Amino acid sequence: MPFRDPIADPWGTRTPYGPGERWPTRVDRHLAEGVEPDDVDRWVRSASILHSNGDAMDIAVKDGRIVGVRGHGEDRVNRGRLDPKDLYGWRAERSSDRLTRPLVRRDGELVETDWDTAMDLVVENSRRLLAERGAGSMGFYTSGQLFLEEYYTLAAIGHGAIGTNHMDGNTRLCTATAAAALKESFGCDGQPGSYGDIDHADVIALYGHNMAETQVVLWSRILDRLAGPNPPRLLCVDPRPTSVARAATLHLAPRPGTNVALMNALLHELIRTDRIDHAYVEAHTVGYEELVRTTEEYPPERAARICDLPVEDIREAAALLGGAERLLSTVLQGFYQSNQATAAAVQVNNVHLLRGMLGRPGAGVLQMNGQPSAENTRECGADGDLTGFRNWNNDRHVADLAEIWNLDPIRIPHYAPPTHAMQIMRYAEKGSIRFLWVSATNPAVSLPDLRRVRELLTGRDLFLVVQDLFMTETAELADVVLPAATRGEKTGTFTNSDRTVHLSEKAVEPPGSARPDLEIFLDYARRMDFRDADGNPFPQWNDPESAFEAWKRAGAGRLCDYSGISYDLLRRVGGVQWPCDAEHPEGTERLYADGRFRASPEECESYGRDLVTGAPWEEAEYRAANPEGKAMIKAVEYVPPHEEPDARYPFTLITGRTLYHFHTRTKTGRAPELQRAAPEVWVEISPSDAREAGVEEGDPVEVRSPRGTLHARARVCGIRPGVLFVPFHYGYWDTDTSDEDGDHDRAANEMTVDDWDPVSKQPLFKTAAASLRPLGGGDGRPSSAPTTAASAPVGARVPATRGRPDTEERSDGGA
Ligand SMILES: Nc1nc2c(c(=O)[nH]1)N[C@H]1C(S)=C(S)[C@@H](COP(=O)(O)OP(=O)(O)OC[C@H]3O[C@@H](n4cnc5c(=O)[nH]c(N)nc54)[C@H](O)[C@@H]3O)O[C@H]1N2
Ligand SMILES: Nc1nc2c(c(=O)[nH]1)N[C@H]1C(S)=C(S)[C@@H](COP(=O)(O)OP(=O)(O)OC[C@H]3O[C@@H](n4cnc5c(=O)[nH]c(N)nc54)[C@H](O)[C@@H]3O)O[C@H]1N2
Ligand SMILES: [Mo]
Predict the structure, then answer these.
(1) Nearest CA to ligand 1 atom 19
(2) What's the rounded Cα separation, in Å, for the pair 798 and 782?
(3) How far apart are CA 492 and CA 547, in angstroms?
(4) Which of 95, 442, 465 has most ligand 2 atoms within 8 Å of its beta carbon, as the pocket-test mutant?
(5) What is the pLDDT of residue 804?
(6) Which residue of 94, 104, 306, 348 has the lowest C-beta tally within 10 Å?
(7) Rounded mean pLDDT of 219-234?
(8) Ligand 1 centroid to 335 CA: how many Å?
């Protein structure tokens, strides 16, 4: 295999292909230095956990240790390719600072102990609070990075055995808007499209989605189409010159937070030019007339002013969408974490409904996930959803779940919408939640407004349990720390963005006495002595496979039907897309091919919400609006962001990702190749803004918002003038700047705003106001931000796309 440096060349060599052809195989592999393929004892089946793409891979084991990975050439998702994080990230799992024993706080200090002591303390506090204050005093905050079996168990414990309404996942920060937008349009969560649509599409639109850096392998698939015959045309909507923007036929760089105004203008133009599939709209949707009325008020000229875009570009974008015969759209955090998140994501669904672009090859919507198993958190109901895409507001659905669990329905809380993460934090702050169990997430770096988060997590009345692999910024605040095993050290399944389920098998032993999350949850349930209606131990399952089989019963008949999937099938064929049942034993590539939706009042997962206020609809309203369960076209007015730039804070601050790191870097920061590729935080600024502020490439600067301050080096690049971008990967576990007085000046979330989308309750990480000033002391060295993708400096040579020669970055900024 020819050596490629995945850091310098993340997307690898092109394997061009044409429309309707099979994406060629290219198997990527990385083994530890000195290890040859012949040295490997075993290859163990798994898939990637550092994004949502679900790339299938094998883990190489030698002498009981992980020594590398290779892609699966046959898998439908990646045909062998792996991204740099997957090629190198496993090294963190062998890191010498893994947690190996439980810890409990004694006299203010965390000290090592045994499992019995730690778990007894957790149980004692649970029992005390349940007796004194009831289930509402307990909260659970989990992840998008565990296995399906673990979420299903946690959901059964939290919503069933304990009966608290306060359970959510970090999926609230991630894909709550994807789920909400799917419910609003189609009545139920569940990804309509398939990655296979890339093979057929003639137009691909990416909305607020930096796919080149965040789903590297999926982007390689698009690059391969671009390099082949009859390539698709690309539309990119992003305020930064990402690699997606550079490859696009048309790049719109709107003012952050104005997505709805832009979408309304695009819909306006589709309607004006009659690019509408009237037969589809008539047969399969409700709400068209209202959309016509609302978008009438959004001619491109108006959107051009609001979004600060050239009016011709908006018209051209509409013509691109309107001329498509097979349109694929993807949506991610530039919409989900921005102003009017759900409202904007729903307008992308509307484009597809108007054009009848659903359920056939190349015509699909991907309301993307971010984390490897965010889909499972939602479908299992370990967040603010009810298990199996059930409707918490529908008593029949609650009764149905109670029957499956063999519990009294009254135990499953459904008196109000489930509490969302930001509200759980608020209750912890106010003292009504006094027990919080955090698993596989690091809120002390990833939640907005960190000063407040640190304060509330250290609250005197809060008993905080943290279950992680490492001593994170959050674990440091805990009363009990539980050391967990991770992928490769435990068995389970997880489901990617396009509903593909993979099995990941245990390859090596966890370090020390670390245990799989499933084992920890079940151990807790047994120690709490939870029982079902017949007095049997609850949950009734006891290992990964029996948990999976139990989950199949909970999802059977619902859209997320796994009843045809088994561990054996996953071992035999690799990735399988749900729904998979007796009728579709090989799974289902696209939802809604027949134009029938799971949206009837009896079946829908949600009665929906008002897109501006977020006020929930009642059953009667839903029934009146959509008695037959069609797809819903929902119109909405543009509303400006709450926090806008002013004289004191003249910039819009957006935050996000770089190619080489995953979130709070607990894994990628411990993989030397990845850490070297992006060692320090930076702030992106346009050349004109830099000139005006007297800042040059690499200069130390201070960024300040009404909540906090950040110190970083400047990267002068092609970002839209008026906008600053900061990656949110850098917390404090590997600095000594977080001293007792709290020198917290490195995490992006010191500055972000404690505000959320009214519909999905997803925090607004992508619209805050900020100021910037030079700190002096520049030494002429450039910032260490990567030069391969969106953060490339002006004048840099950026890797070629579309088979063109390398392009020079424009030196006048992005817009
Ligand atoms: N390398 C890497 N890959 C990852 C992850 C990671 O941490 N690192 N995390 C995974 C996870 S959990 C997630 S959720 C995904 C996220 O994947 P993405 O959503 O692709 O990543 P982000 O960088 O958060 O945001 C995407 C883009 O939104 C743009 N944006 C900001 N504000 C606006 C706006 O108002 N309008 C528009 N149109 N665009 C805007 C930003 O410029 C940015 O380029 O990535 C997954 N993959
Ligand atoms: N400013 C800003 N903030 C953001 C975002 C943004 O774009 N901008 N994006 C948001 C998004 S989309 C997301 S998804 C979140 C991510 O935010 P977090 O979830 O807080 O980030 P991670 O670093 O992935 O944290 C996961 C933790 O789980 C641990 N872990 C990994 N595997 C396992 C396991 O198998 N078991 C257990 N018990 N622990 C495990 C890791 O060590 C790590 O500490 O951040 C959000 N915050
Ligand atoms: Mo995410």
Answers:
(1) 333
(2) 16
(3) 9
(4) 442
(5) 36
(6) 94
(7) 98
(8) 9
DSSP state of 670: G
Percent of the chain surpassing pLDDT 70 = 96
CA distance 729 to 185: 33
DSSP state of 410: G
Q: Mean pLDDT across the stretch 756-766?
A: 97
Q: What is the DSSP letter of 157?
A: I
Nearest CA to ligand 2 atom 6: 656
Instruction: Give the mean model confidence (pLDDT) for residues 401-420.
Output: 93
Q: Closest ligand to 710 CA?
A: 2
- Judged on CB neighbours under 10 Å (0-12, 13-18, 19+), 808 is exposed
Contact 74, 574 (CB under 8 A): yes
Sign of CA dihedral 494, 559, 218, 660: negative
What single-letter amino acid sits at 563? Answer: S
Strands 29-31 and 65-71, by their bridges, are antiparallel
Q: Global pTM?
A: 0.97
545: amino acid identity, one letter: E
Which two structure tokens, joined as six digits, stand for 52? 């949502």
User: Cβ distance 262 to 309 under 8 Å?
Assistant: yes
CA of 147 relative to ligand 3 center, distance in Å: 16
Question: What pLDDT, on a 0 to 100 scale, did the predictor assign at position 220?
Answer: 98
**Phi first, then psi: what are they for 765, rounded to 5°?**
-80, -5
Q: Which domains does the chain have, with CATH numbers?
A: 113-174+373-537 (3.40.50.740), 179-212+239-368+598-632 (3.40.228.10), 651-774 (2.40.40.20)
Measured CA distances, 263 to 46, 250, 252, 741, 763 (Å):
39, 15, 12, 46, 21
Residue 677 to residues 370, 680, 697, 703, Cα–Cα distance (Å): 22, 9, 18, 23
Distance CA 368, CA 174 (A): 10
Q: Which two tokens stand for residue 687?
A: 């050349």
CA of 175 to the centre of ligand 3 (A): 7
Residues 207, 329: contact at Cβ < 8 Å?
yes
The stretch 456-480 carries a mean pLDDT of 97
Angle CA 514–387–617, to nearest 5: 135
Q: Which residues have CB under 8 Å from 694's CB, separation 6+?
A: 774
Cβ < 6 Å from ligand 1: which residues?
51-52, 85, 174, 207-210, 213-214, 237-240, 242, 254, 256-257, 259, 332-334, 338, 370-371, 654, 656-657, 659, 661-663, 766, 790
Please write the tens of the pLDDT for every residue from 32-69.
999 999 999 999 999 999 999 999 999 999 999 999 99
pLDDT category of residue 812 using cuts at 50, 70 and 90: very low
| Amino acid, res. 566 | S
Model confidence at 810, pLDDT cuts 50, 70, 90, reads very low
- Sign of the torsion formed by the C-alpha atoms of 805, 806, 812 and 813: positive
